[in-house]
């Protein structure tokens, strides 16, 4: 049985004790994440793919900076087959504050999504922060 309370060795383990964020150019680095300011509040946030032990699926986890700590948001993957997923890839907030995904149906009408922060893409989906709902939304951007 593990001890509980102040003597619990896991009580003081943080994300940076487990993960080391490095530049993609670092030899031997395993890159399965990227950084950006997803909420548009000037903080450096992170998104990483982590594999769940229960079912082996790769799940995007967003680490939103809150001062010296992080809030962790687990995003349910959209794809049914995540074995060929790519990403995450971060992209800066568009200059005009509006994201325009590709027009897959060929209608010529492009969806316009207002965004407050940087975006990231995992698989076929691009995620952005919705401050009015206090959560991430996703939009299909690759087919």
Q: What are the SSEs and their pairings?
A:
Layout: H1 15-18, E1 33-36, E2 45-51, E3 58-66, E4 69-74, E5 89-91, E6 98-99, E7 113-114, E8 119-122, E9 125-130, E10 135-140
Antiparallel strand pairs: 1-2, 2-3, 3-4, 5-8, 6-7, 8-9, 9-10
Q: Tell me the Rg in angstroms.
A: 17 Å
Report the mean per-residue pLDDT as an integer.
77
User: What topology, given as strand order, has the largest sheet?
Assistant: 1-2-3-4
The share of residues in helices is under 10%
Summarize the biggest pleated sheet: 4 strands, antiparallel
Broad shape: globular
- Class derived from helix and strand content: mainly beta
- In total, how many domains does the architecture comprise? 1
Number of strands: 10
Strand content: 25-35%
Q: Uncertain runs with pLDDT below 50, 5 residues or more?
A: 1-5, 12-17
How many DSSP H or I helices? 1
Q: Give the ordered list of helices and strands.
A: HEEEEEEEEEE
Distance linking N and C termini:
49 Å
